TrEMBL record:
InterPro entries attached to this UniProt entry: AAA+_ATPase, AAA_assoc_2, AAA_ATPase_RarA/MGS1/WRNIP1, ATPase_AAA_core, DNA_pol3_clamp-load_cplx_C, MgsA_C, P-loop_NTPase, Rad18_UBZ4
GO terms under cellular component: nucleus
The organism of origin for this protein: Neolecta irregularis (strain DAH-3)
Domain of life, source organism: Eukaryota
Similarity-based family: Belongs to the AAA ATPase family. RarA/MGS1/WRNIP1 subfamily.
UniProt keywords, alphabetically: ATP-binding, DNA damage, DNA repair, DNA replication, Metal-binding, Nucleotide-binding, Zinc, Zinc-finger
Protein name stated in the entry: ATPase WRNIP1
Pfam families the record matches: AAA, AAA_assoc_2, MgsA_C
Gene Ontology biological-process annotations: chromosome organization; DNA replication, Okazaki fragment processing; DNA strand elongation involved in mitotic DNA replication; DNA synthesis involved in DNA repair; regulation of DNA repair; UV-damage excision repair
AAA+ ATPase domain boundaries: 134-251
Matches recorded under CDD domains: AAA, HLD_clamp_RarA
Keyword match Magnesium: no
Molecular functions per Gene Ontology: ATP binding; ATP hydrolysis activity; enzyme activator activity; G-quadruplex DNA binding; single-stranded DNA helicase activity; zinc ion binding
Length: 514
């Protein structure tokens, strides 16, 4: 009869009796007589063969061996080991219980995954690659909570390769190198591939991302990177060229409703849902999630906790009022930052004050007041109203001296004024022409300054003709006098008010709008 080592008391126990042994708190901590005779037989055979062993082996065998037949473990030690094991299992349960709802119900199969139908739907290319276990190196790009990490873990469940998960927030380049070497050794010894999932890959700078290149290029690893930022700006171009980029869209409200319904079916498998979580409440939570499945599940978990508290029960209406928006999808260093300021600028340029106020509020709610004020100073120079620039500078000063939230109305005042002011880019276009001439025309940057325009602070410079022939404008009627100011090589050039420029347009073109 075979024996196994008890994980609690570490004694040998017949395999058929291990469950009963554990149930009895390890009190029957002795091996059977049959096992003892078998052990004695083994010991006799061992002595017979000792003669043929080297001296070092004889010394090792001469060490005392624990007599399992006669040695017993004191009861208090058995109980202590048992309690220690129970605590260990309880701690594992506690870790599992502490997981937030999004982690507890994370899908492990494609039929549990909602959203991204173009990629993982019945005809989706990514579904085909996952099911055939042929996933190439890829970058999953999409907003927070759209299912990037979940999709990578579904790949882990469906691949025959070894799967290793890393995160740029907690792992460094040395961790990556170790994982790559392990993957290389595994491939050489067993022929088994390794898939490495690098979450938040954009947190590595481009120099750090270079560590992936040789291993991806040689096929030692299959890389799956996840990022919320535009890979064109945040991921090494050489790495992008070796990976397929898949864009994951923000989840629709209907997608999030399906996710919430699945969570409730797991949470209440054999019982009715709380009355406060009806279809209207689920719809409300899904809309508040704003395309982020993780936020939707977190709001649901908040609702479940509130409704299940026997000491402080709240009504569905109170729950609905409690689930106010506390998050704004805006990152001052990410794509959303540049997309939002671009939309704000174009709304002001298009004289749409309503849209300008919306984008202004969106940025201010995320705490970006000073940046907005600086941008409005620049925008003011696209207005034909010369009062726009002083107003924008004053608004910037107000933000720095007064601060938020009092400066909100000042910025709103400035944004509306800029949007409603007549527009002109004549100065902007003229400056770009002058700049282009300097950069692209060989003689423009080195053209000699006309002698009469040069300053002559010394006698030597005056003797050389500096400032000679200059006409001082205040000496003439209305300060106007005919005089050449451009270098000789550029005297025929026109930078401002070139034919075709739109000088001032104070009325919207209704035909263009239609």
């Amino acid at each position: 009869m075979s024996s196994v080592v008890c994980p609690v008391c570490e004694n040998f126990v017949p395999q058929s009796s291990i469950n009963r042994h554990l149930d009895n708190n390890c009190k029957d901590a002795f091996i059977s007589g049959e096992e003892s005779s078998h052990h004695s037989s083994q010991e006799s055979n061992q002595k017979t063969s000792e003669f043929f062993l080297p001296v070092s082996s004889k010394k090792r065998l001469a060490q005392p061996v624990r007599n399992l037949q006669s040695t017993s473990t004191p009861l208090h030690e058995i109980q202590g080991n048992y309690e220690s094991a129970v605590k260990k299992f309880k701690s594992i349960d506690a870790l599992e219980e502490a997981k937030p709802l999004p982690e507890k119900i994370r899908p492990s199969r494609l039929d549990q995954y909602f959203g991204q139908e173009e990629l993982v739907g019945p005809q989706g290319i990514l579904r085909h690659l996952i099911e055939s276990d042929q996933c190439p190196s890829m970058i999953l790009w999409g907003p927070s909570g759209c299912g990037k990490t979940t999709l990578a873990r579904i790949v882990a469940q469906n691949t025959s390769a070894q799967f290793k998960e890393l995160s740029a927030t907690t792992h460094g380049v040395n961790d990556c190198k170790k994982a790559f070497e392990d993957a290389k050794n595994l491939l050489q010894l067993t022929g088994k591939r390794t898939v490495i999932f690098m979450d938040e890959i954009h947190r590595f700078n481009k120099a750090q991302q270079d560590v992936f290149l040789p291993y991806v290029e040689r096929g030692i690893i299959t890389l799956i990177g996840a990022t919320t930022e535009n890979p064109s700006f945040k991921v090494n171009n050489a790495l992008i060229s070796r990976c397929r980029v898949f864009f994951l869209k923000k989840l629709s409200t209907s997608n999030i409703i399906l996710i919430l319904d699945r969570a409730l079916s797991i949470y209440f498998p054999n019982s009715e849902r709380p009355s406060g979580l009806d279809e209207a409440m689920i719809q409300h939570i899904a809309e508040f999630a704003d395309g982020d499945g993780r936020i939707g599940l977190t709001l649901l978990e908040t609702g479940l906790s509130a409704l299940s508290n026997p000491n402080n029960r709240i009504t569905p209406n109170e729950l609905k009022n409690a689930l106010k928006r506390t998050h704004f999808v805006y990152d001052r260093a990410g794509d959303m930052h540049y997309d939002t300021i671009s939309a704000f600028h174009k709304s002001v340029r298009g004289s749409d004050a309503n849209a300008a106020l919306y984008y202004l509020a969106r940025m201010l709610e995320s705490g970006d007041a000073l940046f907005v004020a600086r941008r409005m100073v620049v925008i003011a120079s696209e207005d034909a109203d010369n009062n726009a620039l002083p107003l924008a500078v004053a608004a910037h000063t107000a933000v720095t001296q007064i601060g938020m939230p009092e400066a909100e109305i000042i910025l709103a005042h400035c944004a509306v004024y800029l949007a409603e002011a007549p527009k002109s880019t004549r100065t902007y276009m003229a400056y770009r022409r002058a700049q282009s001439a300097l950069r692209n025309e060989p003689d423009a940057a080195s053209a000699p300054i006309p002698m009469h325009l040069r300053n002559a602070p010394t006698k030597l410079m005056k003797s050389l003709g500096y400032s000679e022939g200059y006409k001082y404008n205040p000496d003439y009627l209305n300060g106007k006098v005919k005089q050449e100011y451009l270098p000789t090589e550029l005297r025929t050039r026109k930078f401002l008010d070139v034919s075709g420029d739109l000088l001032i347009d104070t009325v919207l073109d209704e035909h263009t709008l239609n």
